[in-house]
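From the thread on structure requests for the teaching lab: each student submitted one protein with a one-line request. Submission from student K.M.:

"Model Transcriptional regulator from Lederbergia galactosidilytica, tokens only."
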Amino acid sequence: MLKKQLIMEKALELFAEQGFEATSVQQITDHCGISKGAFYLSFKSKDELILTLIDHFMRQITSDIDYLVKNSPADQLLYQFYYTFHTYFHKHMNFARIFMKEQMQTLNQELIVKMHEYNKLHEKAILHMIERLYGDEVKQTKYDLIFCIKSFMKMYTELFLFENIQLDFALLSQTLVEKTNLLAEHMTLPFITEDYNLLIDHGKNLDITKEQLITIIDKNLSEMGDSLEKDSLLLLKQELTAPSLGLAITNGLIENIRHDPHCKWVAYLLRNYYQKQGK
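Reply posted by the TA:
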């Protein structure tokens, strides 16, 4: 295991028990069995470690949701959306607990900005899903529906994070699909206007350049062992540098890397990059 990955995993255990503020770098290094010097070779500070953890987990779920919204059949989309979200946070319960607690308690401005950026990316994905599923039927209420869906995501997640209730995620997803469809069909009085779309667009800027993508890919490659995912990422880098592959092959290479936790974000960025290029 890479030292950076070890620090992230062990720090996450302490953060889940004690919270961000109560956990010191000394406690993290003791828990890892490493020196402070080794810690600072990987992270400049505890704040950088926290932001890296948030990026690591939020990029995975953001990428998965984006893929679902754009690729799942419409008749399965809403179920898969709820099921993927809730099972992901159940699987990564330690992270989910501290993430939700820190959103309510943090005074760290950089952390607030980071959380806000991912929130806006999720709202964009939810809006796209709503428009795919319901079209003009919810033209006046779709922004209210975003908040209803986000509330379902948050409140039902809290049941297993903080109440220790065992949930049937298949049944939960089915009931949330029913509730969402009822709201979409029967809501008639909008509260949030179309102006909210301007606020969603103030989220994280995804107008990434080819050069920035190559830099991100190089960083990923340096942290990966030999694998199909690494070979696919190398080919995707070559395609950015000297385009020669067709759409099907490029999409196939992106599909090869999207399940790797280290590559989910770059797969997400590549999908959005090629979509904007019209490929």
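TA comment: The radius of gyration is 20 Å. The chain has a mean pLDDT of 86.
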